[in-house]
Amino acid sequence: MKKTKIPKDKVNLILDLKKSGVSNIDVLNVIEKTERSFFIDESLKKKSNLNIALPIDCGQTISQPLIVGIMTQCLDLSKNMRVLEIGTGSGYHTYILSQLARFVYTIERHKPLLFKSEKIFRKLNVSNIFSKHDDGGLGWMDQAPFDRIIVTASAPEIPQNLLNQLSEDGIMIIPIGDDYSDQVLKKIKKKDNKVLSENLISVRFVPLLEGKEN
Predict the structure, then answer these.
(1) Where does residue 200 rank: exposed (0-12), middle (13-18), buried (19+ CB within 10 A)?
(2) Exposed (0-12), middle (13-18) or buried (19+): which is 128, by Cβ within 10 Å?
(3) Three-state secondary structure call for residue 79
(4) For the chain, does the N or the C end have fewer beta carbons within 10 angstroms?
(5) Is 63 one of the annotated active-site residues of the chain?
(6) Mean pLDDT lowest among 32-41, 141-150, 179-188
């Protein structure tokens, strides 16, 4: 079987991620194999392998691959884990998580975004992603607890609803901050009824808003 040649811009992207701190080989392999172009508009497809955030519908963005790589790496995933994702967005990060975990439960407040991402998941024949249109800050109580929680919008503080739904020994990755200029990505661990917090990197995410949009 002839080996598929990896495009030069994808090779450069993976090298860039490695240089910038993404060292987990499983995460790098999934990013390399995943076509980011599936999750963005036709007019932006030539930029799909660039290490930049790109606009999607509803005033949202598809995150920079470096941020996707770092957040995913810090989750320390394994194939037996159940993951809650707050903010489906384009579905790109959701799909990457689905390749590294057992089940991914993803919530999106913008109905058009969720509809579009669900259509992509069906095209890709993904069977371990469960999605719903709802207020992400409420979590998904019916499916809790979760081994891992990842939040792709910034909150002024750790949402108690999500913390309650994180399992013992669980990890949450979330950007915390009041505005774009003062946000830090945090790794939250639940251990022996204690909540441990570690600052990772400075980031810029859209705010985590209450309610849902049709």
Answers:
(1) middle
(2) middle
(3) coil
(4) N
(5) yes
(6) 179-188
Instruction: Specify the pLDDT at position 4.
Output: 64
CB 161 within 8 A of CB 134: no
Selected catalytic residue, list 63, 117, 131, 154: 63
Cα 183 to its chain centre, rounded Å, is 17
Give the Cβ contact number of residue 52 at 10 Å. 12
**Per-residue model confidence (pLDDT) at position 209:** 87
Find all residues with CB under 8 Å of 63, minimum gap 6, and list them: 53, 89, 92, 93, 152
Instruction: Measure the CA–CA gap between 174 and 149, rounded to whole angstroms.
Output: 8
Question: With contact defined as beta carbons under 8 Å apart, do 96 and 49 qualify?
Answer: no
- 97 sits in the region (left: phi over 0; alpha: psi -120 to 50; else beta) called alpha
| 122 within 8 A of 147, measured Cβ to Cβ | no
Give me Rg for the CA atoms of the chain.
Answer: 16
Q: Residue 40 in contact with residue 62, Cβ under 8 Å?
A: yes
Three-state DSSP at 1 gives coil
Q: Both tokens of residue 172?
A: 């949450």
For residue 171, what are the β-bridge partners? 148, 189
* Tens of pLDDT, residues 75-134: 999 999 999 999 999 999 999 999 999 999 999 999 999 999 999 999 999 999 999 999
Banded model confidence at residue 3, pLDDT cuts 50, 70, 90? low
pTM above 0.90, yes or no: yes
